[in-house]
Design brief:
The complex is a heterodimer.
Chain A: H1 2-7, H2 10-22, H3 27-39, H4 41-58, H5 67-80
Chain B: H1 3-10, H2 14-24, H3 28-47, H4 53-70, H5 80-99, H6 145-156, H7 160-171, H8 176-183, H9 187-211
Helix pairs in contact in B: 3-4, 3-5, 4-5, 5-8, 6-9, 7-9
C-alpha cells in the first residue's frame, strides 16, 4: 500500500481526476489512484467536490423555450412543409 | 480515426426514425417536440461562436429553417441531434466570420502549451502532499441561487475553448464524442480543456463557499 502511495502524490492525483472520471485511466494507474483515495481524506474530498461541481453545472441548463418563440418557429415549419 | 465507426453506432434509433418520418410528413407536434428539446441548447451553443445574444437568436432561427428544409435529405448517418448541431455550428461559424468577432476556434487545437495546475501549488507540501487540504463544502448552501451564479460566472470567465467544452459536457450533458465532433477536437485536447475548465470552476466554488463559512 505504501509503495502505491509513494507512486502517486496528492498533487499528481488531482491532475488525473478528469481522466479517472472519464474512465480512460489505464488499469495500473486506476489501481494506484483508488489505493491513494482510500487512504487520503484530502483527495477524497477533492474528488467529491469535483463530482459536485459537475452536478451543479448541469443545474444551469435551461430547458424552457418561450411560448412566443415556439409559436414563431411553428409558423416557419407550417410555411415550409 | 475511429470516428466513422462511432457515427455508425449512433444510428438505428427506432424512436428517432419515427420522429424523422413525422417531421417529413409535416407533423407539427413532432416539430414542437424537437424545438422544446433543443432550442435552448442551440442558443447556448450558438452563443459560443458569435458575439451577441441577438446574433445567436438569428443563427438558431436559421438553423431551424435549415432543419425544416433539409429533413428530407437527412440520411440517418449520424444521430438527429448531431445533424442539427452540425447545421448550427456551420451556420454559426459562417456568421461569426462575417461578424469578424467570432471565437477563434483554431485556438481550440492548441489546448496544451503552458501547464496550468488544477490546484494552486501553495496548497501542497514540497513533496506534493496536501498542506492545506480541501475541506467539505456546506451541503445546505450548494443548491442556492447564489452558488449557481458563482458557477455561471466562473464558466463565463473561462477562455473560449475551455468554456465551449465545459458548457457542452457539463451544462448540456453531451458525451465526449459529441463534443469532439462538434468542436473538431482530438480526444486528448477535449479532456485537457475539460480538466482545466472544471478545475477553475471548482476553485471558484471553493473560494466562494469557504470564505463565508
Amino acid at each position: 500500500m505504501s509503495i502505491a502511495l509513494a507512486h502517486l502524490s496528492c498533487r499528481e492525483l488531482v491532475e488525473l481526476v478528469t481522466a479517472y472520471l472519464e474512465g480512460v485511466l489505464p488499469a495500473g494507474a486506476r489501481k494506484r489512484f483508488e489505493a491513494h483515495l482510500s487512504q487520503c481524506d484530502g483527495c477524497s474530498t477533492y474528488l467529491e467536490q469535483m463530482r459536485t461541481t459537475i452536478r451543479l453545472s448541469g443545474a444551469l441548463r435551461v430547458e424552457d423555450v418561450s411560448p412566443e418563440a415556439e409559436r414563431a418557429l411553428l409558423d416557419v415549419f407550417r410555411g415550409w412543409r | 480515426m475511429h470516428r466513422a465507426s462511432v457515427t455508425v453506432a449512433l444510428v438505428e434509433d427506432p424512436g428517432e426514425a419515427r420522429l424523422v418520418e413525422r417531421l417529413r410528413a409535416g407533423d407539427e407536434d413532432a416539430f414542437a417536440e424537437l424545438v422544446r428539446t433543443y432550442h435552448s441548447s442551440l442558443l447556448r451553443v450558438a452563443r459560443l461562436f458569435v458575439p451577441t445574444a441577438a446574433v445567436a437568436e438569428d443563427v438558431v432561427q436559421e438553423t431551424w429553417l435549415g432543419v425544416v428544409k433539409g429533413i428530407d435529405r437527412f440520411e440517418g448517418r449520424s444521430s438527429l441531434k448531431t445533424w442539427i448541431f452540425r447545421i448550427l455550428t456551420n451556420t454559426a461559424k459562417t456568421r461569426g466570420q462575417r461578424e469578424a468577432r467570432s471565437v477563434p476556434f483554431s485556438s481550440l487545437e492548441d489546448a496544451d502549451g503552458t501547464f496550468e495546475p488544477a490546484v494552486e501549488s501553495g496548497r501542497f507540501t514540497p513533496v506534493g502532499h496536501w498542506a492545506d487540504p480541501p475541506r467539505a463544502w456546506p451541503e445546505d448552501r450548494l443548491l442556492s441561487r447564489e452558488t449557481l451564479e458563482v458557477i455561471e460566472a466562473a464558466i463565463e470567465s473561462l477562455a473560449p475553448a475551455q468554456r465551449a467544452v465545459i458548457s457542452l459536457r457539463d451544462v448540456e450533458g453531451w458525451s465526449a464524442e459529441e463534443v469532439r465532433n462538434a468542436l473538431d477536437l482530438t480526444e486528448t485536447n477535449q479532456r485537457v480543456l475539460l480538466h482545466r475548465a472544471r478545475a477553475k470552476v471548482r476553485r471558484a466554488l471553493d473560494r466562494y463557499l469557504m470564505e463565508e463559512s
